[in-house]
Amino acid sequence: MVVINDVIDCCEDSYLAAKDYRIKITKEFSDKGLIVLVCRHDCILWFINMGPNGEKQYFMLAMMQQLLRELPESFTIGFFYNVICALHQEMEWWQLLPHCLPCLKFATPIFHSYGHQWPCQLLYHPYKNPEFSRTDGEGCEREWNLLNGVIPMCRISGVSLPLLYNTEY
């Protein structure tokens, strides 16, 4: 049997996005991006602006908690998250949402699962878990693809730097 702690130690080094030394575009703008919760049919349920802190696990926990408030306790809910192995371990270790853990199932989206180590892929690959059927968990990626034309316009949301320093008025 694979112990979750052993799997997490292998996977943490695979993801650069979660590291704090990533490239900063500008220090003047505080938004680092959005995190989205979508339903099985890829409809957006909630957006969270990650603000100056960037991607943190507590955003996913907040969305889980909000969704669980809206649904009956008898539901079984499957969650896809890029680094669900780390989140699942933290939830068990720190007893986060302990009353909900029995009704939660966890999986890594197909595209991201291949970045994890083999033991993690066995535990969290959705095709290896019959409860997820053939769901690929890439609903958020499809939503970002639909917004592809809008994203370049929103990258810097503020006063243009050349205009800010232009003194020829």
Tell me the distance between the termini: 71 Å
Structural category is alpha+beta
**Average of pLDDT:** 77
Q: Compute the number of strand runs.
A: 4
Mind telling me the C-alpha Rg?
19 Å
Overall domain count: 1
How many helices? The count is: 8
Strand proportion, as a percent range, falls in 5-15%
- Which regions contain 5 or more consecutive residues with pLDDT less than 50? none
Shape: globular
- The helix fraction, in percent, is 25-40%
Helix and strand sequence: HEEHEHEHHHHH
Biggest pleated-sheet summary: 2 strands, antiparallel
- Major β-sheet strand ordering: 1-2
InterPro entries: KDZ
Task: Label this structure with key terms.
KDZ; 169 residues; single chain; two-stranded parallel sheet; 8 helices; alpha+beta
Description:
The protein is an alpha+beta fold. The chain has one domain (about 5-150). It is built from 8 helices and 4 strands; from the N terminus they run H-E-E-H-E-H-E-H-H-H-H-H. It has helices at about 5-10, 55-70, 85-95, 110-115, 120-125, 140-145, 150-155, 160-165; strands spanning about 35-40, 45-50, 75-80, 105. Strand 1 (about 35-40) and strand 2 form a beta hairpin. The longest helix is centred in the middle third of the chain and has 14 residues, at about 55-70. The radius of gyration is 19 Å and the shape is globular. About 15% of the residues are buried.
